[in-house]
Amino acid sequence: xxxxxxxxxxxxxxxxxxxxxxxxxxxxxxxxxxxxxxxxxxxxxxxxxxxxxxxxxxxxxxxxxxxxxxxxxxxxxxxxxxxxxxxxxxxxxxxxxxxxxxxxxxxxx
Amino acid sequence: xxxxxxxxxxxxxxxxxxxxxxxxxxxxxxxxxxxxxxxxxxxxxxxxxxxxxxxxxxxxxxxxxxxxxxxxxxxxxxxxxxxxxxxxxxxxxxxxxxxxxxxxxxxxxxxxxxx
Lengths: 109, 115
Prior knowledge:
By secondary structure, chain A is mostly beta strands. Chain A has strands spanning 3-5, 10-14, 19-21, 24-26, 32-38, 45-49, 60-61, 72-74, 83-90, 97-99, 103-108.
């Protein structure tokens, strides 16, 4: 069965510091991975997906099949990055998303 | 930009009562989903729906749950006889196609409190 692990419940960094939010997955097939973000009192929204290989708001994520990871990175954290971040896996059989438990990113001055 | 909407934002009900949670997916989307998040836990898949049929459902989605697209715009989740453990945030989502690479767009959620 598919599984997503986000080991950190809370990550606190200073403004301007690099950020890495960890995500590991368990799936034997070819995964499709996503990062969703939830800002305070707002809905879950897509941040980026691995197939697009894009950078959104300065964030990037690279799928590492050898390590089964899809870590989210940003070189310089901004205050407005403070939010809840969820890694999600779609295995394609029914397009259901399997979410990790989420990591709260707190960017302080 | 079109968004998924959900009503009500908060529903309080007594144990054993029926509740209907409503969602209006993005208008040209064909695939619809319900997820739930119990406080402090992860977002969990409940059911996916396409072409007026359930595509897949999770173990959580037992006989107490049902989904319906009663008209061309609404997508509803019904819980027939609510239990205390049904208290959660319920999210509706939609996507334009059902491929695994497609983005699912989420609504703001309905907070269900069962007393």
